[in-house]
Amino acid sequence: MTANGSNRRPSNLFYQSGNRRPPVDRAEGIYIWDQYGRRVIDGSSGAMVVNLGHGNRNVIDAMKRQMDKATFAYRLHFENDPAEDLATRLTQFMPAGFDRVFFVSGGSEAVESCLKLARQYAVATGQAGRFKVISRFPSYHGCTLGALAVTGYAALAAPFAAMMHEMPKIPAPTAYLDRDGLTMEERGIRYADMLEAAIKAEGPETVLAFIMEPVGGASTGALVAPDSYYPRVREICDRYGVLLIHDEVMGGAGRTGKFLSGDHWPGRPDLVALSKGLGSGYCPLGAMVAPDRIVQPVLEAGGFLHGFTYAGNPLASAAGLAVLDEIERLDLIAHAAAMGEILKSRLEGLKARFPFIGDVRGKGLLLAAEMVADPETMKVLPKELNAYQRIVDIAYDKGLIIYSRRTRGGYEGDHFLVCPPMIITPAQIDEVMDILVDSLEDLAAELRLPVNG
Ligand code: PLP
């Protein structure tokens, strides 16, 4: 067998990438070893999941203790302490008033839960005409049909369009692309006001919610709106009785240097979707967190008509509880903020040598760099170069995992995300950067992109 997959046994799995990867052997900290003994740095925490790093003994021990007791007990038959304890613990990390937790097993499920709770709340409070959920383009909210209907990433949604109820989209606040003489703060207001225009155009009495990632994920490359955007969005939602849903699936659980990425700004949401870092890769886990004022009317009207079999199972809950304990014990949220500053300035520094890096953005350890043909105009690279995919493959071959997507709605544009586990040290950031620079050199040579001496 070889590392690139030739001579590998045929696979019955069809979710693997066409590009065969070596089988994993073990993982510890920020490193993963394959079965050929090669070590790679997990510079994207998987898919921005393993916030705590791999192989955390305290989490594993907590899971083992739970496994010796019970791994599953169905919620209609038993309550379980790990789920109760995790819910209580989670609310302590949340803004005041977010005191009701609904567990799920992943990000799409968390988003679906928010959409359905919002809808049932509207029905229960005499607003049954509200059903439209406005979202942004580009964005990613999940792969199930409800979450996909609010996802703004054409390449993923197109074949399923006929099966979904089309939901209104407004442009994501890509203020960094605008060349209009406005200040960033003025642009932030302009983008937020697009929400108001959409609500009015749709008919406010039909609009249920607005969903957004406070710090964008893979679809935008860690897009951060100007500060003015966030409170204005809140004001607009309040004005029209529209619920504000924050999708914190990627940005939540501390990665951006606050527990929620939305905590960086005023403009609190009504519902929050969490996953990825909450279970940190130790178990499939996600949650919707909601205030009592939204949950109670739904319960009084007969209950939430929604739920997943594995929700709140004792093993995943024990893992999540131990993850939160470790985040606190190791002060990882502050650490992510500090390491994020270092990593971001190192990424910014790449622009001098690689002028095709047009923008570096993000918060904490949710960071991305966008590659363009012209950094002045932010004109995209020719899409057939597939720069976003090539940089990932080149870095992988050199021992660094990074993550990438097309920037401009899935059609074109190239960015890569560097989102290592929150436990990363400054010396390990050096390791990441050494391989990244080397990879960018190779990319530039291969695609004939300019490099400064
Ligand atoms: N929402 C956001 C912002 C995400 O980044 C993702 C996954 O990448 C999801 C939702 C869907 O999560 P999952 O893949 O766990 O269903």
Task: State the gist of this model.
By secondary structure, the chain is an alpha/beta fold. Helix content is 37%, strand content 17%.
- CATH class label of the largest domain: Alpha Beta
Q: How many E strands? A: 16
Radius of gyration, whole Å: 22 Å
Terminal CA distance: 40 Å
Number of domain units: 2
List the helices and strands and how they pair.
Elements: E1 24-28, E2 31-34, E3 39-42, H1 45-48, H2 57-69, H3 81-93, E4 100-104, H4 107-124, E5 132-137, H5 145-149, H6 154-157, E6 169-171, H7 184-202, E7 207-212, H8 229-240, E8 243-247, E9 271-274, E10 286-290, H9 292-300, H10 314-329, H11 332-353, E11 357-363, E12 366-374, E13 379-380, H12 387-398, E14 400-401, E15 403-405, E16 414-418, H13 426-447
Parallel strand pairs: 3-14, 5-6, 5-7, 7-8, 8-9
Antiparallel strand pairs: 1-2, 2-3, 4-10, 9-10, 11-12, 12-13, 12-16, 15-16
This protein binds pyridoxal-5'-phosphate.
Characterize the structure shown:
This protein is globular. With 453 residues, the chain is an alpha/beta fold. Strand 2 and strand 3 (39-42) form a beta hairpin. The protein folds into 2 domains: 24-55 and 331-447, Aspartate Aminotransferase, domain 1; 60-329, Type I PLP-dependent aspartate aminotransferase-like (Major domain) (Aspartate Aminotransferase, domain 2, 3-Layer(aba) Sandwich), CATH 3.40.640.10. The chain is built from 13 helices and 16 strands. Helix 2 (57-69) runs antiparallel to helix 10. The chain binds pyridoxal-5'-phosphate. Pyridoxal-5'-phosphate is lined by residues 47, 106-108, 111, 140-142, 213, 217-218, 247, 249-250, 275.
